[in-house]
Amino acid sequence: MAEISNTIKESSLLPLEFQNGVNKNLTNPTLQNFLKELAATDHENDIKKIIEEIVHCYVTSTENKLLHIEVRNTIIELFTKFNGKKHLKKYVQDLVIKQNLVNDIIKSTAEDILDRIKNEKTCDLKECHKFLHFVSVLQTSPKYDFETNCRPLFPLYIFLFDSYGYYASQVKQDIIPEIEELNFLMSTVVKQILPVFVKNISFLEEIKEQYLQSLLMYCYILLFNEKIGFDLRLKVCLVFVYSFNVLEGDTMSISQLLSKNQSLFNLSINEASDEEKPSDYLIIIYSSIISVLSEEKLVSETVDGKSLILVLFEGILETYKSNPGHSSIVIETSKTLCLMAKQFRKIPLNLVKDIFLEGLYYVSSHADYFIDTVRNYSKIFFEELVALAAYHYGNGSTELTDILVGKFEEIPDEGAMRFFAYENIAKYYGCDFLLKEFDQLPLILLECVDNPTIIDQACKSYQMLLEKSFSTDNEEVWIKTWVIPVINLLRSGQRNENFCQKIISAAFKLQPALLRMTFPNDYIGTVEESKVLLHCLLNARKNGIELSLEKDSILYWRGLIDKQKMEMFMIHQDEEIRLLVLASITESLKSTELYLDWEFIFLINYIRYNITAQSPNVRKQIVCYYKKVLTRFDAGYKVIGKNISNLSKSLELNSSEERDQKKYLSLYQELKKSYRRFICNLTRIFIGNLSYDSNYPRRATSLELLLIIQTILNPDEWKSCWNEEDVKNSHNILFDSYESNKGMIVKLLKTLPPNYLGFMNVNFTFKYMQRSFELATDVKPSKTLSAAYLFDICSYSPFFFDIVHSECGEAAKKGNDPTLDMIVVLTRKLINQTADIKIDHVSMANASVYGLILSVRHLLENRDISKHNDTYSGVFGHLVGNCINISSKIMPVVCNPSPEGYLPDYVEDFCENDESPKAQMVLVYAWRTMKEMTLLLAEIVKQTMKLESEISMLSDDLLMEVGQLFVNVFVQSKHRGVFEQASVGFSIICEHYWSSSREKINSLPRQWLNDALELCTGKKHSEDLCPTRRSAGLPFLILSIVTTSIESAPFQTVMSCLLKTAEDSEDGNSEIKMHCLNVLRAIFRHSKLGELVAPYVAAGVILAIKGFRSETWGIRNSSTLLFAALMVRMFGVQRTADDDRVCFKNKLTVRVFFLRYEPLYSFILSTLAEECHNKSSLVLQPILMVLSRLYPSNFEEESCQVKEYLPYINVCLSSPDYRTRDAAAKASVALINNADIKSHFEMCFNKIGDINTVTDNECHGIVLQMCYILKYNIVRDLPLASYLTQSLHIWELAGKKFSHMTVNLYTELITLLLQICSNFDDVPLLKNILLHLSKQGKTSDVPLTWQENFLSTRTVLAYYIINNKFEETETTYSTVTNEIMSYMYGHENSMKRFFLELLIKLNQIHLYHNQSDNAIINSEAEIDNHPLFYTGDVEIRPSITTLVTSFSRTSVENILKHIHPYLKTFLIEELKIQHNICSEDRVLFFLLLDFYPCAIKFLRLSKQETLNALLSYCDCDNEELISAVISCISTFLMEVDYTLLKYDKLLEVLAKSASPAAAVHRRLTVCDFLCKNSALYCNEEPVLKGDELCTVINIVMVLLEDEDLDVRNAMSNYENALKVKIKINNFLNQTISGHRWPVVPEKAKEDLIHLMTVLLPRRKAVCLIFSWACRYFPDPSCEPSEIFERGGLNQYAENTPLIDICSRVLIKMLWTLPEGLSYDDKSIFPEEQTQIVTSILLDSLMKYDSPMMLTKTKMSVICVLKSMYKFLENAEISSNFVNNFKTYLNDTSLSYLTNHLEHGDLFCVKKIIRKLYDPVFRLRR
């Protein structure tokens, strides 16, 4: 090989100079313009036109050689430019091929590059890359002529090979900096050479003599150069083998390359030469031979007397076994085995068995490999092996099949191979064979649902087998075998709906009738079943399935499901169910499928109930679905119109089918009316939602969908949907706190005529503009933001130009862009305002400037960038100059070392006592001004650079000045808000400067970066740099430049420089090191740099950990921050706050971690060795923290190297510092494989069994380690008896040699071991344990460390043994009872707390068992059934939960049965006189009392006295106690006669507990009380009457509008009682009574309004409903304190939807005519009915109180109603009544209200009155 290498060196053309991207400026102005236009446009069509012109220029420029070459190079560069844009790249490719330019471009370019290589000895790598990329793209075209184009290319390939061969030989000394780019270039060359061999073109013969010999030699040299990447050497080897085959194929086979005796090359398997070769070269050769040789030769040829395919198979596996950790070898091995496997059928049967066994072993060890590619190839290889066994099975040989089936016992239950086997056996043998060999296979697969690691694979396999079986079995057998088990699993109540949904959906696709069979119409089922049903329904809609069985349009929707069930799904509390039912309506196979009337009604109702969904994700999906609805609506409406037009034309021609056509025409006309009715109703609903008190979800959703509707309706229809009130309400959204809403409403308002907005004259426009300026100069940011959008609206006025003309004189020209005019006006105002700017609180209060700057930026962002740029150029200059002027006045504030307390020297008039408020005002003003100013400058620069090819908007000097201003801000400012916001603008600036065609501007980011790095590294010094505040703006400066750079070189420069400086800097120069560490932290945290920073993570970790040793606090602090950022970068954002519950997504396997960050292995090892004995080490914690995030994989090969850590970890386990021991115990989990756990535990128990040598700390650390190992690993079959025998002495020495902390932890370990070894039954040893525990319980020593915890831990272990390990005796439960009661009456408060929790948990489990038995739906049963547990305000310790859940149901019942009389007595005594339970545990006492209503009954008090006694406990500030007491009251009331009690005090407690100020658990408790005791108010004969009933109804309504979703949902459950006991309307009559069907709060609220009409007298109901519609909310402009007191911040307490509900109910109550009366027969006239309605409404309001209305509002309404009543008394019965009444209502009644009511109340009252009298206006005479 050395001789060949020397030969190549001698024949080389070297030395050859490689250059990287030599700048070649274009000389032709036309071409320059083309490229400028290309850079300036983003529109695809414009780009295509420019490309056409460039190609045309090439075609026509043949005589101009220089231009021809430049255009050619430009065309080649286009392929690289558009590489990420497939459409444009394909367009250029097609255009070049169509013009027949391919051959000419390739030939001329190749010759030019080759000439430079030969003559100038230079090669431009960038030019070669672009050219070869051009060739690669064209090679993908079927029209590419390989033979013609290879002739000019091949000489270039050979010269590049020649150069690369020489350079590659130099790589061993690592002296060639261009080698990475050369590698990439050669990879492309090899890819282009290979098709020459594969396609076998005639050109191959031409190059055989001239080039192939050299090519062969080059490839041979490169093959053995291990510094070259594996993938490149693999391709090179392919070329080598192909070349050898062409050159020597006639005389020698490729297989002889492997021969010991006949090979020309040193490639034999049994290598005789001592020459060093890469470890992976053999797999490369084997893979190449298999790829090149034909199938026949692979089987027929031999090597040294042995079959070639066997030689290759054995060689491949041998190579892999020699390099098990080499990922490239493993990947290539798996790939090559897949290629070989196809030929195994041709091997004689006697040779196949060994191959089959070896193959199965390989698959079993790689089916779960950590690399995806290996897993996928292993799966394919395994499939080929199964196919091989099936092939021989079909030919009568069962040997391989027997081996395959027999190997199942060796496959791990959790291994992927087991599932591959099921799938492949079914595929090649059939499902019958599979079920015969593996009985109960469906049930076996269903058992996997409890294992999260394999559930997805089990589901996939089940689906495959289900589909396979369907094609072979009859339907009945198929359903019984595969479908019924899944349905049973679904109905079992386990959390497995996703698994079942996928299976049942797959079955449904195969047999749609399964839907009705599985879910009959009279069956509701669980939430999980509903989801599965809806998923099937959604699949049916997507696939266009409609069932015809029992099809009835009245009952069934599209023959699939009954409509009633769909309506119930629409209001279900589960968000997924509601989304799925909407998706089912929305999705359709046809984009023009017509909607049904029922679907329109459904969609209207759906949006009413669901528009305020709390989850943003749900709202987003609802909006997306409604957009689909509107898109399909538009398409369908056009189809209807087209069909009507066609039918009308056909009828005009007197067609013979006139009768049918008239019928269809009538049908389509009705459809059109239905469509118009739907869109108008939907539009009015959305417009009505734009009121002032609508919450954000309602406003945002309505706005977004209105923007879509506006594009569907024609202008007249759109305008007709709006009225004056709607526009006013919508205009208020401009003052919304959400900017997105402001933007949408501006777009909507601009779709209306200007006069709708009030722009009727110049005067109004001028006042509007003045108001906008007032807001823009306000100090409140919310007002300044609104001003920006108001200016936008103002410029829409037709009179705006007149105002501008009067302001600007002749400068304003008619026809100018209003946006430009507004920007000019604002700029003038800003310049005037800035002239006398002062940074003090007085000036700020009078007029701030940041609002004006914001308004200018907003208008600039929305301008048409293609117009009026000459004028904008001047405006930009003024704005930039003004901003620079402002910055000079603001910078002293934000750059002060303590900006939070800085006041300028000239500020004199401040408070004598307190300057801080004014200092804060100054700072806020300064940083907000700076923020808006930097964003404005960024927008100006952005537009300037976009237009630089057309016009110079700003000079280079100004652009440089803008950039320097930002740099100064970053270097000098100390306020975080300033440099954070400045970084947003600076990133925009850098992004455009990097891509600028101006050389001077393009170089600025690189210059700034160099300056910043010099500041970081100390080469430059600046007094302005801030060593604190995490280096202030310096990291933001560097990040803004680096993240916007097109190339990666700046980033690499920064990282190298920072890491080197930080590593070299000593503590003496701590400031430099701190800056470097802070910048590195920012870089590692930045999301855009995720991939780029990966190679530097290990170095960063090493640097950070070393920083912990620094004596300087600042360096330690910066190192800590850097380390935290790196932990997130390595392991992801931690999903839990608890370090003990870190998600597996935040961990890595040991192998993967050290493969990614290889340098950390040796660093961690050496650092552990140094620091493990250092008791005060600061370095141990971060190292152990890293190791604790690792875990061993069950499927990776064992790595013995990591065990080197264990000796040092063991030292840490003995540390006197608890945190170090804990961290070491966590870290050791990753270092001990599952297979070694048993031996490790033996070693641990041996250590702690040696009393003489083990210390307390060491014992604690070892026990802690074992606890963590058991927590994170599945361990079985431990020799527990041996462990116990060795360690029982720890209990004996408690408090003596071992602390109670250690003993407590040891007790927890034994409990855990007993739970794991559930079959352990050594009774004598267990009795010995109890003996030791009983001795510990009797000790009366002075309390030591953790002794209190030990008592409870001891009890848990004792009870576990007694109840789970011993047989029950007469004394078992009496013993437990005696101990519990002795502690309850004792003085040990901690144990009382323990036993209270234990008794509560026992009762919870008992109740759960009973609910599960009695519930129709098992999943309804809940264990933690009290709100205090639900919210987490009260928690039962996990040890008790684990203990009680381990008890059998019988044990739980027996314990409760034996203790009941004693506990009942204790509860009664304690309830009378509190002397045993301390105040801290009183909550637990009442939670326990809730399970024992019998104790409350036997207080020997009357029922009322008992109630009052319980209520007395609510007179306190302990909200948890009040919640517990309310639950007890609820339980008590359910056991007594409601009518015997008075409820005034109870209602007071409930009202206070339901208020928004109460805790969530307290409000939930009230919900629970009201639902359980619904008979008080929700019954045909409610217990509560009059005002008390109204109070409860008010409480229910408040809770239904609570801010917390859980509270609203909990209160909605009162519907369960409502549906059973009261029939409100037809919808409720149809529901299936007795089933729990939780509805959304919006539906529950609507039903509550209906319920009032049933429960209350008519007039009282009218008063209460009207009062709710007109309830008072404070105006947002009022004092914040008033809003807070009234709960006005609750966004779910809205009047808008309530007014709609109340008006519908009141109209039904008031306007429904008595039986026998009709307007048609004039038995009653509209005038009379209107008077009756007015009379009832007036009488109701005067007779009853209206607590929710303001007194002033109510009196005004009464006055109006009286006036209306008088008008109606005097009105004559005539045909003009409706018009006269409408005029009176608008001009008199509503005008009076307008003059006397505030805006909020006025809106509600006017809207409800209009709606109430709307039936009058709908009447027709």
From TrEMBL:
What range does the record give for the signal peptide?
A: none
Task: Alphabetically list the UniProt keywords.
Answer: tRNA processing
In this chain the tRNA (32-2'-O)-methyltransferase regulator THADA-like C-terminal TPR repeats region domain maps to 1116-1266
Q: Which residues form the DUF2428 domain?
A: 876-1113
Pfam families to which the protein is assigned, alphabetical: DUF2428 (PF10350), TPR_Trm732 (PF25150), TPR_Trm732_C (PF25151)
Ribonucleoprotein in keyword set: no
The residues covered by the tRNA (32-2'-O)-methyltransferase regulator THADA-like TPR repeats region domain are: 478-724
| Similarity annotation | Belongs to the THADA family.
Name of the molecule in the record? tRNA (32-2'-O)-methyltransferase regulator THADA
Gene that this polypeptide is encoded by = LOC115888381
